[in-house]
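My current task is to audit a protein record that another person submitted. What it holds is a sequence and that sequence's fold in token form. Thanks in advance; the entry in question is below.
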Amino acid sequence: MNDPRGSIWRKCDFHVHTPLSGLENNFSTDFDEYVKILFRKAIEKRIFVIGITDYFTIDGYKKIRTEYLENSDKLKSLFTREEIDKINQILVIPNVEFRLNKIIQVIKHTGSGIKTESGRVNFHIIFSDELSVKEIEENFLHNIEFTYEADPDQPDKRKKLKTDNLVTLGRRLKEEQPDIEGSELKVGMTHAVVNDEELVKLLTGNNDFNNKYLIVLPSDEDLSAIQWKSQDGLTRKILLSRSHALFSANPKTIAFGLGEKSDNIDSFLKEFKTLKPCIWGSDAHEEDKLFEPDLERYCWIKADATFEGIRQITFEPKHRVFIGKYPELGNRIQLAKNCYITHLTVSRNEKYDGRNGDWFEGFALPIGFELTVIIGNKGKGKSAIADILALLGNAHIDREDFSFLNNEKFCQKGYAEHFTGVLKWYDASTNTKILNERVDTTSVERIKYLPQSYLEKLCNNEDGRFQEEINKVVFSRLDDSEKLGKRNFDELREYKSQLINQKISELKNNLEVVNKTTAALEVKAADSYKQRLENKLGARKQELENHNNDKLKIKIVTNPAENELQSPEQKKQVEILKNLNEEITELEKSIEEQNSKLVNSRVRVSELELIRDELVSMKGRFDTWQQERAAHYSQFDLDIRQMASLSVETSKVDQLIEAERKIIQNLTSLLSDDSGDSQQGTNLSLVIKLSDKVKLRDNIGADLEKPFKEWQEYQQLIKEWDAKYKDIIGTKDSIDSITFLESELSYLATGLSNDLAKQMGLRESLIRQIFAEKQGVQAIYNKIKVAISDILQVYSKEQNITIETAFKLDRLFYTRVFDYINRYGDFYQNGDDALRRLIEEYNFDDIDQIISFVHKFLSLDIRYKEGRKVDFYNYLSSLDYIDPEYDLRLNGKGLNQLSPGEKGGLLLIFYLVLDKDNKPLIIDQPEDNLDNQSVAEILVPYIKSAKSRRQIIMVTHNPNIAIVSDAEQIIYMDIDKENRYKVSSISGAIENPIINNHIVNILEGRMKAFNNRRLKYRKKNK
């Protein structure tokens, strides 16, 4: 009755009476007929454990066992061969029901309300089938005495608890009270009472009964509502403390027995010594009632159909018992048949001649549906089974991460290619592969595998893969409706961040303008810039002084035209010359004006062309967006072209450009010095006209006598002096003129600081806006975080695991900074350390701290690489180096503070508790890098949680994990290297004695783990 699949849910009925029960017996008088109905109905109802119940005796059990179960001829006369095979799989055990000498008040709920009754307490003792009938009767039942008669002057008369003595008691009572109805046996059983202290003393005083009985106290009331301060409170407490379990199907009593109604488990254990699992039965006194408890409250035990299996409920009272129609596991499997492995087989291929050993020839292994733990000594094939399962289940793992199926071991030539594995699933589908095949990452992954080397790589590397795995698990927690059709967390984040990133991009464009302006202002704020201006101003003033002195050196010449002694011809020439000079002056002024107009027109054309190009570009981007999003809109029967349109009209801009170009053409002709460029010859070219006038003036001047030449030269010198004077004095816009330099120095003293502060204020404002947008991305994380936090709170009581969303610094920040700045100044020599110390001062979840960080960084002595100052400003203020991520903390330590072992434990917790994927999870040696205490505290609670949601297969060299996790199936692996490397396995439940012995042999300290298991829910008495 030990199942290789391990502990599986089995329907049990611990309370079935027989025709020999004596009280309330409505069975057929034909015992053969009763037995046929009993077992055929048990087979029909798939009952695996039957507790044959008798009052004070085991007469019914004895008859069934000795005359039927141990009598093959009798069975053959009543049942078919197939029926007998099924009967042999049913555990039949005795359940003796006693009436105690204790009277308590019982609160009963009736249709009319609540009433209180006083009554005797019943007391059940269920024995192991390993005890013989003779042992139970002679060493226990026949040693029990009951008070038969009392006399004030004599000791009580007591008799042994035997059927004959009960009949004698009933006869005497009927003689003394003729109105008592019922058979003599029934009356005797109804009135006889025993002392529970005596019962327990007999059981505990005989080693033959050690671990071969269970005391079960019936509870017809809600124990969670008991007033323990009543007079019978102590009596109840002693009886409860003395019991292993309760007979009850009341949900509140079930919760009470598990300590869930107490402040905590420890307070319950202190008061009642052990947790009390509840079992149940039909309490059948007639054939129709057999295995039909009220309200379909069937009793299910997850164990082998052995008494030792039943005893497991005292060690795992919550998880090994279920009262109801079906355990949840059955429903879960039915809803996901393709996610539960049933069998693994490996066979030798026909062409293999066996030269390298038998290995997996004829290997077959059933797989349990909840937690399977593979144990064995080192090098005995534990990881081999995990690798084979993962390969057949197409786990997306590189071959190099397999510890057995890799090129250095079994996949080297001559081994793996000669064996074929077949994986069978509950939905009857199969996966078949030759063992040297590779995983097909393009096909569906049916198994999730965490080999030891894979976990080590994730936890030891700093390439972000650990965070990626966390993100995968987090993504699995989302409902499909929240995943928005995206395949992973990064896609979802990118999708939801599109609009946010657009806004950030616009803010960064504005930031670039501000940073460029700021850098220019900072150049002016430098002392060296002011000193240069002052030096230039001093030089210019000296130049002005020298220039003024030069004017004094020019010899003044009077205008000969003012001489009254001129001849008429001279006067005429002078008048012509005067007019020419005036015309020349006007032409020069006109040329300067037209040049200014030409510059303005060209600027206007350039700006208008930018406006036109901007409109055309915007229309192009819109058209591209419309094309890209059209398919998405059409999924909802929406026409994007009807919902959004953009028209761009550039004709007005084109007209303005054309008008300006005509102006430029005309001005160009006016200012051309080539007569061919003039539309109408020299009449329109101002430059040619000026040239002609100057030539004419020079010719006339050449014809004049010496006084007129001197006057002309003098006028030219004055003109040149005036021009230079104007250049030295200049305007605010003429670079390096006195006016410009004085104005610039005045600006440095009065306006620069305000402008610089304004730009820094703009930069700070833009940084805050960028951070606010990034917080919009963080909101995506926060939404997911809520659900995860709720789950972690349930399971992380022992280990304080919290998840927050926090802004994390990009790992490449330390490298990128030095793309912009040199390792000099404050970053000389130990630049990385200086940068790290600076970063550690600030909290990047706080915008005020971020602003302070930027200000502090830029205030340092930084030596920028050539041309990279503005680029660095843009990088530092863009906040491109911080993004929201999950901040996981284990016992107050962040990810970067955890050891590789702790990281591995944390990742395993995520897979075990948070991963909503229901495909089988295989873990190879999760306890590596964790001590026994950490295994128990970090992994066990989560393993127990995970196995209630998905199939878990775990490889370990520490069987303690199997014990404390209450593994349903344990597989012991062995490779007989002396016998052609034959691989073999033995599988079963913890309670299976063969499996038990293998565990004990592997464990250090021999029975240490099992003792701890037995004491787990017991309070030590000191």
